[in-house]
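Reminder: ligand-aware prediction takes two inputs, not one.
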Amino acid sequence: MKIEVLTLFPDMFAGVMSEGMMWKARERGLLDFSARDIRDYSGDKHRKVDDSPYGGGGGMILKADVLLRAIEAAKPDDAPVILLSPQGRVLTHQVAEALSRQARLILVCGRYEGVDERLRELAITDEISIGDYVLTGGELAAMVLIDAVARLIPGVLGAEGAGQRDSHADGLLEGPHYTRPPEVRGLTVPDVLTSGHHAEVARWRRQEALKRTWQRRPELLKRADLSEADREYLARLAAAEAD
Ligand code: 4G3
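Here is what comes back for the chain with 4G3:
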């Protein structure tokens, strides 16, 4: 996958894109990343990229003409052009999975109070938010999106399909995990995990995932793919709480 970011702060991406999994994905040729400086497309001797809003009021708006030139320079084909903004559809595992199947993404990072509305009409094909809060710019949102998407590209995570085991992949939160040592300040490890009974371990993990989701994010259970045994277990949790 090729990801091209349009930003006023291309240097913000250097650390995130050069460490850990992102670097491995780039090294393996699974991810091609570049950041383009919007200011290079200002077409103005002062390198101006923003202006005050028509109709007055505070703040500055990113100019549509400048952003259009930057997008056209990045876009030789029909790649999706995604604006990161608080008004976008909210990023979820399902959205990340769909984006991970694209060959190319162009990510547009806004700053200031936003972008000229005509940019949306002319060049933006999708608008995504990483959650219901405002950031000073779209850069951190773009990095979150890139990380969530890149780890789902086949071959990026070590184990094949590792991304399918995470919280949210099957609509449930993950249950608890343990590793050595067997005791930490008097706290031990559930016996089932050291029992060697693989079927029992699988059943325990499923139940712990159901319990955690029920306790912390019960609304997720409405959309999760649940078996008859899952539903019976959840009914037992609800009955135990009722006493
Ligand atoms: C307003 C994304 C602000 C309009 C960007 C861009 C939060 C998110 C910005 C615009 C952002 C988010 C920049 N803040 N929740 N700020 O994903 O186009």
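Residues 11 and 35 are 8 Å apart (CA to CA). The chain has two domains: 2-150, 183-242. We will return to this case in the review session.
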